[in-house]
Queue: 3 jobs
Job 1
Amino acid sequence: MTSLTIEQKRVDIYPSAKPGSPVIYLNTFSNAVNSVYKNLMALGCPDFCLVAVSKLKWDHDMTPWYMGPISKHDTPCTGGADDYLKLLLDEIMPEAEALLPGAPAWQGLAGYSLAGLFALYALYQTDVFARAASMSGSFWFEGIMEYVCSHEMKRKPDCLYFSLGDKESSTDNPILNVVQQNTQEIETLCHGKGIETTFVLNSGSHYQACNKRTAAGIHWILNR
């Protein structure tokens, strides 16, 4: 594993020994990276490279536009996804892939929570990613349903993975309690466009088994 720092972001690169293996870009927290990778190894994935980006400004880098606080003590989301995506495409990916054994067969994008929202949103902004996995994606985000229903992805991805905890929509917060309905509607919409999709409903809340759920989603897109 090699680590880089690019524009204050930490980039951990886990190369494959096999040239031309696909590369998965995972936006995450630095304390989750090793656990996700160990879970992937335990699942017996085919040859792949993992590039994990952390030390993100989570409510800024992963959100497509401004959204006010969802509760009294929360902070707003400030809509920096387009700027972060440009950094990912123009600087992080070239530097990371220069350290890999050959050009990747394809590139995938994965993330949990707001990073799961970003994984889908990015497909509407760039044609680089062939596959994506959104685990517990924040599809309660205001305006996201209207956006995906009125825009087209830049390319038709090979496959898309969606998952959610079965207790995530069990909340009195009217913003958050639509998350399962929205996730399933997005998955149905994508499937209707001829994309191979799956929706997995895990047991538990948003904060349970996050790293295992992340690894499960990446494992699925690697095995299509």
Note: The longest helix spans residues 81-97.
Job 2
Amino acid sequence: MLVVAHDRQTKPPPATRTPNSRKRPVPITDTDIRAAVTTHLDHHPGDAAALTEPLTLLGQGTDFASRRTFPMHVTVGALLVRRNTHILLIDHRAYGIKLQPGGHLEPTDTSLTDAALRELIEETGVDRHKITLASTIPAYVEYGAVPARPSKDEPPHFHLDIGYTFTTIDGEIGRLQDVEVTGASWHTLADAEQQLGRRITRAIGAPARSG
């Protein structure tokens, strides 16, 4: 999940793993991640400069699906659009701001879109059967700084956040994941765009095809 933007460094440090208690790896590979970023840039070449640093890191390290890989690892976001008029945002407990649902990858995730859908359902309780993936092409790929979280033994680091658009006709908010989320609500596209910027624009204009 993307939190805030940062000033890019000219030469990012190589990615490294820190010890952790989770033994089971995430099935999503660095090849999958690079393919998602490349596909995004095929459709949004203007983002190339902003993604120079994470692309450099992707060429230096391994296992960016793991949240124990620093200074960068991958997160996913889900932009759920209802009837092309509203989009679902959450109130994020840790960061105290409104965001699209999303988070870190888990060992049960078999693809980036699967991970985004899981986070969407977990955090908002919307019925899985009322959600449709709009496109396998990422709506956005953004790189941002995340503050240290001592409670999780995480130093300051960066998220490479890959977001996908989903649609629903009559999906309703259900039980929230209150460990992560303090609220969830539907917002008009104009209101959401004011808060989250071009992610919303990209969600509405996402290619209606897979690729």
Note: The first strand starts at residue 16 and ends at 17.
Job 3
Amino acid sequence: MSELPALPVTFRPGRTRAVLLTAGAAIFVVITTIALLLEQLSGGERLSFVFTGAILFGVLLMLSRPKVVADESGVTVVNIASRRRLAWAEIIQVNLRPGDPWVFLNLSDGTSLPALGIQPGIAKERAIADARTLRALAEARSTGDLP
């Protein structure tokens, strides 16, 4: 097995996050600029344009939120609208099968938790490497085989 990374380590879809945040900022700027340039709009109408741009930016900001943070005591999975803290012993298996949109964590209670912080969308090789690293960390931490 290769060297495990120093903890804490954060896994997140960096390219996807950059695209979402850039698009959100651009959409907000364009909609706000249009609102300011259209002379026939009233103040309330302009405000509604800006508010709509802010809402769209907020949605894209939420979509860019996912991450997986591994530390000495366990893993924190942050998805779009939820956050869950897991002890290493709770993670039975880390899966990223061909065609999966993101990593799934099989848990000791028999459930499966999606971990959107590792997704092969734009950067497939990076997601595979991150999934392997998280799998190695989970195996080492749950069995006590620490380097």
Note: The CA atoms of residues 5 and 133 lie 8 Å apart.
